[in-house]
Amino acid sequence: MAARGVRRVGNPLALALLLLVNLALTFAYAPLSDASLRTIPSGGSDFDIHNGALLSPILIPRVPGTPGSAKVQEHFVSFFRDQLPLWTVEWHNSTSTTPATGDTLVPFSNLIFRRDPPWAKTGDVSRLTLVAHYDSLYRPEGFIGATDSAAPCAVLMHVARSVDVALSRKWEAEGHGGDELEDVEETGVQIVFLDGEEAWVSWTETDSIYGARALAESWASSPHETNSVYPNPLSSISLFLLLDLLGDANPRVPSYFQNTHWAYQHLSDVEGRMRKLGLLETKPRMQFLPEKDKNANQFTRGFIGDDHVPFLQRGVDILHVIPTPFPSFWHTMDDDAEHLDLPTVRDWGKIVTAFVAEWMELDREMALGLKGREDEGKDEL
Ligand SMILES: [Zn+2]
């Protein structure tokens, strides 16, 4: 970051001032500039339900352990391999019986795509963790689950793609960070596609969130190497941002948790600013995230059962982005491609991208847009 500049300064006072500025820049959560917000892409036809590159391959039944599930896994893996090769892929596999399948062990595969600062040790990185489930309901047969959660998965693919160049640019500019300021926090981002969220018969503690339960347990019990900043992958999660049931028009997403209300406020702020700048397609009467001014005494202990629960129980900070009420067609055959409101899906893509770009402190890099990157590429040739 400013490390290279620091070395050129001879005056001790100026050096101290620069270090202070540098510290402030490092730790401040700064909103994206309007210029950066304007560069955030909508994804356009990639969200087309018939042949869009991101969404359409997910709009099939994808019950755990079936060929549809395998196809969607392949869609994620090939997308990152071909378009975002700097993201690592990790499979997390488990098996379980279910009340619908008797003694048969059903396989559940979570997929984790991750980008850390290239110089950072695995155990030293705190990670913004973006989560959606990709499995679909076992019954009714043929259920698609377009909002539950095909669209949220496609939104996360779009987010990854939209911040990828800016991340490279930032980390290339910083070089080996932390040599002058050793306590600078290393910040990475990971996208977790969870399997087995749905109950097979009816929602209970043991018949639901199969993939999330296995992953939380595994991450909590896989220690990082000694002297790591974070003892295990679970403790490396700075925020668990879970998207679910998104893609219906006019969603109303409350702020569920007081301890992460500050993060909700950032997400809501980003939405409000993008609306004012005319950058979103939808024109709802209320914001998607309307509870920015919720008071501390308005929070209750109630929450919606979902993939975050085993992480919440282990003390992870959760931002649950799920509408209340649920879409009217929730868990019916009408939760299909045709019932998606694509402007809403694309707006979610933009809002979450902006939030991630702020979290990862990519303002300067986003403002350069994608064009600069292409020019950089030409220079190298
Ligand atoms: Zn569901």
Automatic annotation (TrEMBL):
Q: Does the keyword Glycosyltransferase apply?
A: no
Question: Signal peptide span per the entry?
Answer: 1-28
Task: Spell out the coiled coil positions from the record.
Answer: none
| Pfam families according to UniProt | Peptidase_M28
Q: EC?
A: 3.4.-.-
One example of the protein's molecular function in GO is: glutaminyl-peptide cyclotransferase activity
- Name all Peptidase M28 domain ranges: 127-356
Q: Which domain of life is it from?
A: Eukaryota
- Output the GO biological process annotations, alphabetical, semicolon-separated: proteolysis
The UniProt keyword set, sorted, is: Acyltransferase, Hydrolase, Metal-binding, Protease, Signal, Transferase, Zinc
Q: Can you tell me which family this protein belongs to?
A: Belongs to the peptidase M28 family.
Stated name of the protein = Peptide hydrolase
Q: What species is this protein from?
A: Coniochaeta ligniaria NRRL 30616
